[in-house]
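Below is a filled-in request sheet from our internal design queue. Each sheet records the structural input a requester submitted and the sequence that came back. We keep these sheets so that new team members can see what a complete request looks like end to end.

REQUESTER: design group, bay 2
PRIORITY: normal
MODE: inverse folding
CHAIN LENGTH: 423
BACKBONE (tokenized):
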């Protein structure tokens, strides 16, 4: 438990740096571009993250899961890199289709479509889950945190330069693209120094040969990751398609500030997953403790958003963004719920129940996206936020029920040998 807390501390340090610098570049982008311009910017960034989220495999989980054995991470890393290359190829095709079709359903000017396509390609080339997995496998959270800090630093510096030299949507997209490339290169360099990366091990068949359930796990975690993107980035695209660029920009600001807890939930999940893999016997108790801690932290964060959110929005983004205050509060509540569910979801995945975790995430997410039009017709951006809140609540309830079932199965299995011996 001590190592887990220490690792979370490293990750939270990185999140803290990111949070502070994100306020800088968010303020620069919103105040320089205005509500409509920031809406265009938000749509392009969402397109890039959507493509990466759908095409990218959660290869860090594969490295941690299959690289922890006596044979080392070589084959697991080779399998992960092979999947990364496939992600880039498939993602490029997806990006082309998405950017070409955007003229028919997104409020993006024609001159920004090529900017969007370029950003999508850069985001694909900057996929970095494999080196992140290598560092987590070795519990090198300090090195990972230092490497990942490159992104917010470059992004903040780029935003300053864009605001001064090129105060346009294109200028800020350039800054974001530079940050993606910089952090990916840094992580690969740091991971390569910690573990020699043998490119001759790149293969689609070695890991599945030794682990028969490998492809099922791969597709389950990929689909779960895609759904996590669907609940955020695809939602921004759909909000823009339904309400226009101003709605997209407003929702992006509310989401970034209100759902900072979702990033925290992902931090907890990424820290606890390797521990759960290495300590199966204590996994349930560890997940329960983390959920209890998350419940307290989530409650405090919601209160902060409720009482200080409106002046914070005006201070950071400007007076025209104060209209998204209640949207931000609703998203903060959703983030608190996700924070509680993070350890439960990780427990399911570490126990080989990635398919169950996917199902618990899939149904509420699809339902929320299906109801988005109705919700926005009813209450605009607040309605969209309520779909996120509802999907998060249903997913976490599902995780909780699945974990209880998993616990009962474990109790039954351990009880039977004792019964036989008594007989």
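RETURNED SEQUENCE:
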């Amino acid at each position: 438990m001590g190592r887990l807390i220490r690792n979370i501390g490293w990750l939270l340090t990185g999140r803290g740096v990111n949070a502070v610098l994100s306020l800088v570049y968010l303020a620069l982008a919103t105040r320089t571009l205005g509500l409509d311009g920031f809406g265009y910017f938000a749509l392009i960034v969402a397109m890039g993250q959507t493509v990466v989220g759908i095409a990218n495999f959660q290869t860090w989980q594969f490295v941690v899961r299959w690289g922890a054995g006596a044979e080392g991470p070589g084959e697991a890393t080779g399998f992960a890199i092979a999947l990364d290359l496939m992600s880039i190829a498939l993602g490029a095709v997806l990006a082309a289709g998405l950017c070409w079709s955007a003229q028919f359903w997104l409020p993006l000017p024609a001159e920004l479509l090529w900017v969007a396509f370029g950003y999508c390609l850069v985001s694909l080339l900057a996929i970095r889950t494999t080196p992140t997995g290598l560092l987590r496998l070795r519990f090198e959270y300090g090195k990972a945190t230092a490497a990942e800090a490159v992104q917010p630093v470059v992004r903040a510096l780029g935003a300053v330069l864009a605001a001064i030299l090129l105060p346009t949507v294109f200028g800020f997209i350039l800054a974001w693209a530079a940050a993606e490339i910089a952090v990916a290169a840094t992580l690969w360099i740091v991971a390569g120094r910690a573990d020699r990366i043998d490119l001759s091990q790149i293969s689609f068949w070695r890991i599945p040969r030794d682990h028969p359930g490998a492809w099922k796990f791969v597709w389950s975690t990929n689909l779960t990751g895609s759904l996590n993107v669907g609940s955020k980035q695809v939602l921004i695209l759909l909000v823009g398609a339904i309400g226009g660029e101003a709605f997209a920009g407003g929702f992006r600001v509310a989401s970034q500030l209100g759902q900072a807890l979702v990033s925290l939930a992902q931090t907890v999940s990424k820290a606890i997953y390797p521990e759960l893999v290495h300590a199966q016997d204590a996994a349930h108790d560890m997940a329960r403790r983390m959920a209890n801690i998350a419940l307290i932290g989530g409650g405090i964060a919601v209160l902060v958003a409720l009482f200080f959110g409106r002046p914070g929005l005006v201070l950071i983004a400007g007076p025209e963004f104060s209209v998204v205050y209640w949207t931000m509060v609703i998203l903060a509540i959703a983030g608190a719920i996700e924070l509680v569910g993070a350890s439960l979801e990780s427990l399911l995945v570490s126990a080989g129940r990635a398919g169950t975790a996917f199902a618990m995430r899939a149904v509420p997410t699809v339902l929320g996206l299906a109801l988005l039009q109705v919700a926005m017709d009813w209450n605009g951006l607040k309605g969209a936020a309520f779909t996120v809140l509802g999907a998060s609540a249903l997913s976490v309830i599902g995780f909780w029920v699945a974990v209880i079932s998993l616990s009962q199965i474990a109790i039954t299995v351990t009880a039977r040998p004792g019964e036989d011996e008594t007989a």
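SHEET NOTES:
- The chain has a mean pLDDT of 84.
- The CA atoms of residues 62 and 396 lie 24 Å apart.
FILED BY: M.R.
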